[in-house]
Every structure is written in C-alpha cells, then in structure tokens.
Design brief:
By secondary structure, this protein is mostly helical. Among the domains are: 47 residues; 53 residues. It contains 3 helices and no strands. The longest helix is centred in the middle third of the chain and has 76 residues. The termini are far apart.
Length: 149
C-alpha cells in the first residue's frame, strides 16, 4: 500500500512536470516566432533609406504607444467601475452605521428615562435624603428646567 501511494505520487509529479515542460516549450516557441518577426522587420528597416527608417521607427513607436494607451484606458475604466462599487458599499455601510448609532442612542435615552423615574420614586420615599445628585451631562438642561419649574 505504501509503495503504491508513493508510485501514484511520483506519477502525479511526472504528469505535472510534463505539463509544465509543454507550457514552457510553447512559450519558447511563441518567443522564437516573435523574435523572427522582429528580425525580419529589422532587416527590412535596414534596407530602407534613412528617412524611411525614421518614419518606420516613428510608426512603430506610435503603434506601441497607442496600444499602451488603450491598455491604460481599459485599466482606468476598471478602476473607475471599482471605485463606484466601493463608494456604493461605503454609503450602504455608513447608512447601516447611522441606523445602528440612532438605535443605540434611542435605547440609552429610554433607559435613562426609566432610571430617572426610578430615582425620582426612590427620592420621594426618602424624605430625609440630602446630598449630591447624580445625572448625565446631556440631561443637564432638562434637570435645570425641572428645578426651575
């Protein structure tokens, strides 16, 4: 069983290696073909007059720059599309965060009102209570208004 496992692993590795060699060979063939085309173009360029060589070189450079420009435009479009998608997600998350924040502020406000009623009830029962009053800073205007009235 162990030898069969090792043999199977070796065959898998051999298959992967052969596939990799084939892929590399096809890359080498493609590069050879490209190099032959460039050599032919170079030899044709050498046979041209100096003015024609300059013009041919300029045409080649214009073609290269045009292709590069198109690639960059395509990349820019992808990035802009991604930016729009991310902005939409950000808006959704910000809205969710605001909703959660609003919920969290409503719940403590209700809890504080309940606590105030409890404190008021306790304070009314203890008629002899004298001392400091504990309150939340944001409740200060309400407390002052109640003291005045």
């Amino acid at each position: 069983p162990f030898l069969r496992l090792l043999e199977a692993q070796l065959q898998d590795q051999r298959r992967e290696h052969e596939e990799e060699v084939e892929a590399l060979q096809s890359q080498v063939d493609a590069l050879k073909e490209e190099m032959e085309k460039q050599q032919e173009a170079f030899l044709q360029t050498l046979q041209l007059s100096p003015e024609a060589q300059v013009e041919f070189g300029l045409q080649q450079e214009i073609t290269r720059l045009t292709n590069e420009n198109l690639d960059l435009k395509e990349l820019l479009e992808k990035l802009e599309k991604n930016e729009k998608k991310l902005k939409k997600q950000l808006k959704i998350y910000m809205k969710k965060d605001q909703d959660v924040g609003a919920f969290q502020t409503v719940v403590p406000a209700e809890r504080r009102q309940h606590e105030r009623h409890m404190q008021a009830a306790v304070q009314r029962k203890e008629k002899e209570f004298q001392g400091m009053l504990e309150y939340y800073k944001e409740d200060e205007p309400l407390l002052i208004q109640n003291l005045i009235t």
